[in-house]
Amino acid sequence: MQKNIILAGVGGQGILTIAAVIDWAALNGGLEIRQAEVHGMSQRGGAVQSHLRIADHELFADLISLGTADLILSVEPLEALRYLPYLAPGGRVVTSLEPFVNMPGYPAMEEILSELGKTDRPVLVNAAELARQSGSARASNMVMLGAAAPFTGIGTERLEAGIEALFGGKGREIIDINIMAFRLGQQLSNT
Amino acid sequence: MNRQLLLGAEAVAQGAIDAGISGVYAYPGTPSTEITEFIQRSKEAREHGVRSSWSTNEKTAYEAALGMSYAGKRSLVCMKHVGLNVAADAFINSAITGVNGGLVLAVADDPSMHSSQNEQDSRFYGKFAMVPVLEPSSQQELYDAMFHAFELSESVELPVIVRMTTRLSHSRAGVVRRKALEQNALLAEYAPDRYVLMPHNARVQYRHLLELQPLLEELSESSFLNQPVQGLGPVGVIAFGIGYNYVMEARLAYGIGCRVLKIGQYPLPRPQVNELFEACDTVLVVEEGYPVYEELFRGYFGSSKVRGRMDGTLPRAGELTTDLVAAALGVEPPARAAVPGIVVNRPPELCKGCGHRDMFDAINIVMKEHKENHVFSDIGCYTLGALSPYNAIHTCVDMGASITMAKGAADAGLSPAVAVIGDSTFAHSGMTGLLDAINDRTPITVIIADNDTTAMTGGQHSSASGSKLVDICRGLGVDERHIRLIVPLKQHLEKNVAVLREEFDYDGVSVVIAQRECIESAAKKKRRAAATGQ
Asked: How does pLDDT run across B466-502, given as a tens digit for each residue?
């Protein structure tokens, strides 16, 4: 088993929280992990990405090769498109539909949707709406993780255990909201 | 097997803690910051009294680390590649004095310049100083290499460099820890013939350093960081540091069976290198950074055997990837999608609500009133003032250069001559430049953007902010009437513009301190207070 996952977003959107849950689940499942992050200047509202690789055998490179990503998980729709050269044939794009506009020239949503539509069965998520349903607008990243869960190669139970572990210090209510968010996201990909 | 998921930088930190350091000294700089931050957060480090607060700059950090080593204890000093330029004087000369307790310099290079102004290769410094350099290829190797580095440093009595690059420093993997070592006891010995670098001592010490070189080579031959990988065929690869990962990944992905020599400890192990060159018709040199060893292998008159960055087999600049290495080994790139044309760039920007925004608004208004409106600036979040919509600064070269470049331009006749520098950068390298201006009575205005933190690297403690900055400027000799405090807020715009206008017009050294807490640090403080219920 080997999964190459590109996590994409804008600096400050918290894609590393998603990475941390997958990391926890993979580590506890005895898998090998490499997860490259972007720190520094780009974190100030620039485009950020994380290369996450998990496998049941030794991994060497911290970076994913072009054309080999099984999944692009983006918390911003334009950012999902930025990394398409990494997508493998048959790889899947799961993205939030909420634009983060902080630069001139941001394209029209129809154009973005049209480009996303050219990929293989893209999973398009109204993450903010589902997060609110789960009890907190801040849980949108867990909605996104839920929607992408079937493509991560890691079982739902283990991912939920990862959420429990990661949010454990914040009390039962926060954990439950994030688990709920995860499940609402997951229903999108299961139906 | 209990694995901890660590960034490369954190593996260095955990390795150093477990290898028994008594202190870490550092100035923040991407991609090295997380080493020191990890030690600052580490419960074990705290329990063992490992000192870990931030230094004013890389030079003070390096010298303090050398002092701790002099006293017999193990010390770690961390910086980014360009930070080593600042510490270079201390570093190069510490190879002449040698060390007592183990002294390890962890330096993180930034090829492709993700957060830097150049992609200089710290291995050059290792060669320059003639000290051992370790370049591990994985997080686990980084951890293990820290034990090895301290042992090596104490056995040859030299500082040892552990070099890594952005991708390794900022990538996580599972790391298995070893049993931690005790710290060294305090043991300061009088050794003025080593440590007093007057010429008669330095000559002897330098000869000693030269005589050590064959031993250093020998130690590389048996290092666990230098390993041959069996293979076949006329093409061999010599893979340095993280370059090894891309070579092995390409081998695995495309079924390439070539010989590989993995290098992770310098000086080079001669017999292993000779063996590879003898067995192969061509050798691909895969280095992350400059073609330091490729140039050596080619020699002045060239060699038809060598492939690498210098003949275009790999690109001359920028970091490596599996794709680049695979292509260099003759693999056709697989089909891939293009980035759709509608995808525009998303450059970084100053945070919404950041005080620097209001400061630049005020500067821009006053600068427009002048025919010449150059603003010399520096390294920090406020460097983003160079981008649209502000386009407010016109230089950013190295730490502290805003003040000294403004001074030189003023000497040449430029008026107004304005510098914009952050509080932490001012403490790092701005004070001496300001003293030059005061001694010369140069008409410059220094705007210190004081947000009470080292913000760009994630909000580390600043060595000088608030009233300390005022005291420093006064102490250096700035006329008290021309040390002005402003608060960069929208509602103060008019007032701030008036202050800047007055000081730009003043014929002497003036300092305007724009004081407003970084909104990121303020938010962090609030979150922390909420979490602890205070």
From this structure: 999 999 999 999 999 999 999 999 999 999 999 999 9
Phi, psi (deg, nearest 5) at residue B234 = -80, -15
Instruction: Please state the ipTM of this predicted complex.
Output: 0.95
pLDDT at B533 over 80: no
| Facing B31 at nearest CB: one of A39, A61, A63 | A39
Preceding omega of B333 cis (within 30 degrees of 0): no
Residue showing tokens 């953007």? B449
A80 vs A83: CA distance, rounded Å: 6
pLDDT digits (tens, 9 = 90+) for B27-36: 999 999 999 9
Chain B CB within 8 Å of residue A87 CB:
yes
Cβ neighbours for B129, distance < 8 A, ≥ 6 positions apart: B91, B92, B94, B95, B159
**B contacts of A85 (beta carbons < 8 Å):** 336-339
d(Cα B390, Cα B383) in Å, to the nearest integer?
11
Q: Cα distance from A53 to chain B (closest Cα, Å)?
A: 10
Q: Cβ B244–A102 below 8 Å, yes or no?
A: no
For residue B181, the model assigns a pLDDT of: 98
Sign of CA dihedral B267, B271, B275, B277: positive
Q: Residue A189: its pLDDT value, please?
A: 80
Query: For residue A45, what pLDDT band results from cuts at 50, 70 and 90?
Result: confident
- Is residue A165 less than 8 Å (CB to CB) from chain B? no
pTM (predicted TM-score) = 0.96
- For chains A and B, what is the number of CB pairs under 8 angstroms? 153
B223 in Cβ contact with B271 (< 8 Å)? no
Give the closest-approach CA distance of B524 to chain A in angstroms: 13
CB contact under 8 A, A84 and B337: yes
